[in-house]
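seq:
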Amino acid sequence: MIELTRGGKAPLIVNNPVLLASGVAGYDAAAYAGLLDLSKLGAIVTNPITWRPRRAAHGPRVVPLPAGVLIHTGLPNPGVRRVIRDYRARWARSPVPIIAHVVATTPEDVAACAAELDRCESVAAVELGIHDQAAQRDLHAVIQAARDATLLPVLVRLPLYNALELAPGAEAAGAGAVVVAGPPRGTARDPVSGQLAGGRIYGPSQTAQALRAVGQVARAVAIPVIGCGGIHTPDHARDFIEAGAVAVQIDALLWTQPHMVEVIARNLGGLELTRAAGALADEWEPGMGETMRKRREWDKPHRPLDVRPLRPPDDLPE
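struct:
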């Protein structure tokens, strides 16, 4: 059992230190249920949610990079009330806790979202997504607004490049945990349109930077730190834990190798099976059973290589 948050009415307790990050699996990860065993995870963080509906951004949305991908969507979502209406029942059937990711736009909107989510018994916690340019006063205002509106645990996802600067303020404002960190912004030329496009960067190129930030923040605050960014192997995940994180959030790996997410969850959760001495690689794998059979069906040669796991959905974070 892992205590993900501190403070508030009650901490958020999970069974596994591996979570799905916001924006990678929709609002309930149902699209990936046949590719990995969701019950092996610690929790699922939903796509970003705002008080009012938001439309998708114009222009290029997905630009390939040498070691990852750049994504820009504008955080489209139907608004918190519609999300709750559409997913309340699905969340209630989720095998793991659901953490609702709320975009920290204004204190008023955050309070309204948190109040709606507080009335939804299927939500276990709220995660606030902090903007890259947020100052300490902005951070304090949105955290306080959320805490005043809900008794649910409040996690705060900090931007990568000023996570160390903002983390102590988040702790002082009453955050139950900090997520380090949100994907950084970048610019790249879209090979299809020829236009320069801005967006968030995902991929293993972020591992070293995120790992450094996690270590710095873990030494600066007493509340739990959750690592996120560029985690693509069990070794990456263990490095984040060694640096001071109590848990990790997996992002882009889910799109390219969804079965590996379960392998990491089994690895960190102590669910690996003992491998017989001398066993060949194809005779044993931690993610065995029904999930492995479904993955083998997915990997058959007649299936195209650019199917769903390689194409992020439209409703990804900006």
